[in-house]
Amino acid sequence: FDDELDDRPDTLEAIDRAIHACRKCPIGQLDNHAVMGEGPRDAALMIVGEQPGDQEDLSGRPFVGPAGQLLDVHLEKVGIDRRAAYVTNAVKHFKYVQRGKRRLHQNPGAKEIDTCRWWIESERAIVQPKLVLAMGASAARGMLGKTVSISRVRGAPIALEDGSELWVTAHPSYLLRLDGAAREEQARLFDADLAAVRERLSELT
Ligand code: URA
């Protein structure tokens, strides 16, 4: 088992097994289940979120709860086919605090994200996407190993060491927390980022 946790896995199935056994950070010790990325092994586009939420933890699939449903609406609006993308998270387990019956989402810490980079890097090495879309600060840190300001880096590609491109945008949960004019403005920016990704993807593929 330890070998599976320390040697870079070379199949998605091996990563899936290994993340379920992973206790390298405190999040993996909570009462939760690892959620593996989902999508074609040779996807040109990899979409990265923060971590599974309550519904993802229960269903074992990424982006099926409220944030995922909003993401689906925006992807469809700009013409990105989610089923053709490999969808995953920077952190593989749901971090929460229990409040009565509810499990409330907690942001992963920098150390937790950096520990979990091992898995996202392993997924990326196998899928070899041409373009990675990181949604939110945790996803961006998961890809870059450092914190960036989304407003500063969004809208233009960041070159990754293997020749692929990283694009950064806001997390759909951020949109869910806004309303009124602020929500509309952020939805517009989100759509613009997704549309730029769709354009770039059609050039790269
Ligand atoms: N938010 C994320 O970042 N990822 C999910 O899978 C679900 C919600």
Molecular structure report:
It comes from Qipengyuania flava. Belongs to the uracil-DNA glycosylase (UDG) superfamily. Type 4 (UDGa) family. The chain is α/β, with parallel strands linked by helices and 205 residues long. The chain has a single domain, classed as Uracil-DNA glycosylase-like domain (Uracil-DNA Glycosylase, subunit E). It is 46% helix and 14% strand. It has helices at 2-6, 12-21, 54-59, 66-78, 110-127, 137-144, 150-153, 172-176, 180-204; strands spanning 45-49, 86-89, 96-99, 102-105, 131-135, 158-159, 165-169. It has a five-stranded mixed sheet, with helices on both faces. A hairpin with a 5-residue loop joins strand 6 (158-159) and strand 7 (165-169). The chain binds uracil. Uracil (URA) is lined by residues 49-53, 56, 62-63, 65, 67-68, 89, 173.
Short description:
With 205 residues, this protein is α/β, with parallel strands linked by helices. The chain has a single domain (2-204), classed as 3-Layer(aba) Sandwich (Uracil-DNA Glycosylase, subunit E), CATH 3.40.470. It has helices at residues 2-6, 12-21, 54-59, 66-78, 110-127, 137-144, 150-153, 172-176, 180-204; strands at 45-49, 86-89, 96-99, 102-105, 131-135, 158-159, 165-169.
